[in-house]
Design goal:
The chain is mainly alpha-helical. Helix content is 74%, strand content 5%. Strands 1-2 form a two-stranded antiparallel ribbon. Strand 1 and strand 2 form a beta hairpin. Helix 1 packs antiparallel against helix 2. The longest helix is centred in the last third of the chain and has 37 residues. It is elongated, with a radius of gyration of 28 Å.
């Protein structure tokens, strides 16, 4: 198991930077391929180069958002919120608290069912008795 974790960590240290760099290159190529048409939109400030850069940055940011969410999801953590500010995950302490509360509730339900089964069995024996 230790060897698997080390190998996974090593693969992850290689794969993540490759994905980031490749996504940047694809974003730049996509921004160039989209073309530059006149008149430029207002946010390009009259510059075709700025338009390409802004498109590339927007596509790259969206791609990185998807990569982060997929990476964390594969490791078992889903985002609590995705908004214009980014991705928010629940704090690990909150997850541990919820897991503990759920386990306690499950134990309480099991104990209560055991008590009810015992009471039902005793009632059944009294009904059969005399």
């Amino acid at each position: 198991m230790r060897v698997f974790r080390q190998r996974f960590r090593l693969e992850r240290e290689v794969v993540v930077p490759v994905l980031v760099v490749c996504s940047l290159m694809i974003s730049v190529v996509g921004g160039i391929a989209a073309g530059i048409e006149r008149p430029y939109p207002g946010f390009a400030l009259g510059s075709g180069l700025l338009l390409v850069v802004e498109r590339a940055v927007a596509v790259w940011a969206a791609t990185l958002l998807v990569l982060v969410v997929v990476d964390k999801s594969l490791r078992g953590r889903l985002p609590d919120e995705i908004s214009g500010r980014g991705v928010r995950y629940v704090a690990q302490e909150q997850l541990d608290d919820v897991a503990g509360t759920t386990a306690d509730a499950g134990d309480a339900v099991t104990d209560r069912l055991d008590e009810l089964e015992a009471a039902l069995k005793a009632f059944g024996q009294r009904m059969e008795g005399p």
